[in-house]
Fold this sequence. Notes:
- This protein is mainly alpha-helical.
- The protein has one domain (about 1-320): A middle domain of Talin 1.
- Helices cover about 85% and strands about 0% of the residues.
- It has helices at about 1-30, 35-45, 50-60, 65-90, 95-115, 125-145, 150-160, 160-165, 170-200, 205-220, 220-230, 235-260, 270-290, 300-320, 325-360, and strands spanning about 90-95, 120, 265, 295.
- The protein has a two-stranded antiparallel sheet with strand order 1-4.
- α1 runs antiparallel to α2 (about 35-45) and α11 runs antiparallel to α12.
- The protein is globular, with a radius of gyration of 20 Å.
Amino acid sequence: MDIIYFILGLILLIGGADLLVKGSSRLALTMGISPLVVGLTVVAFGTSSPELAVSVKSAMEGKAGLSLGNVVGSNIFNVLFILGLSAMVAPLTVAQQIIRFDVPIMIGLSFFVLILSLDGNLGRGDGMLFFAGLVVYTVYIIYKSKTESKEINEEYNQEFSETAMKSFGWVKCSAYIVAGLLLLVLGSEWLVNSAIVFARLLGVSEVIIGLTIVAAGTSLPELVTSIVAGIRGERDIAVGNVIGSNIFNIMGVLGLSGIMASSGVHVSSSFAGFDIPIMIAVAFSCLPIFFSGGKITRLEGLLFFAYYIIYTVYLVMDATKHDNLPMYNHIVMYYVWPLTVITLLVISYQEFRRKIKEGA
């Protein structure tokens, strides 16, 4: 029954997120909100609503480890797995706005999580700070949308056309939003409860379950959105969706979790010393790869995807105390990481030379 509840919970989360995005995005447009704002906030935040529902539910029930693992795991999954797989399907275009503004914001927030976690707890004050940052970020995006280019406006208008808007009145939009929220609440309850049972049966911590199974499950809306956008060749929607969702996960999901948890979100020394730095490294790796030609190639997508497999294998081996874990750590530390650093440096150097030649 726990397996059934887990699967049903995932289905309800995905369905609820879809209804919430459809209803809220069209309602926002009927209120005269810019299409760019809708794309960067409502759509990106809406696909993160499963993470929000699961993490806040976990925090309120005293399962903060699952809440924190879900946020960090989802951010790692979004970049490595979703962008990696999407780029393998079709090379992804990266807008200069994302490279110059949104990715640095994501990197800075990831570092900020580590800094606030050094005392071993993300309390209400930390949560309020994150959530206030989300408000400032959203206000800035709205302000910036006033200088939005005609090309981007046309792109988002294709996603939310006038014909589509006419079929969505106020009542229908509101009904979609309410139904989506109800499905998210019910789905998160089933998913959290069954995930805790799995953790106990497998003998692993709730944090590990949050980093893997729950993180992957709640990131399915981003996965579907990005892959479909990549196949359709839609301009950088796949990348923007992932980066926007990661920003919301930290400021919105982690922020609200810190506020709702009575004793804050506990951060173990091992988590702060490994998983959060991995999230930072993953966020930072976006800069040289995104910067190279303004796109993510199939080879770079394969690199992202391979690293998610390496990371997940490590989590499983560490949780089960596998005998070959020391050898695996040795290979990753002394062969895989150095090769990655060299690869990223080469990519950056080649792009730097290309920019110089174009300038000349």
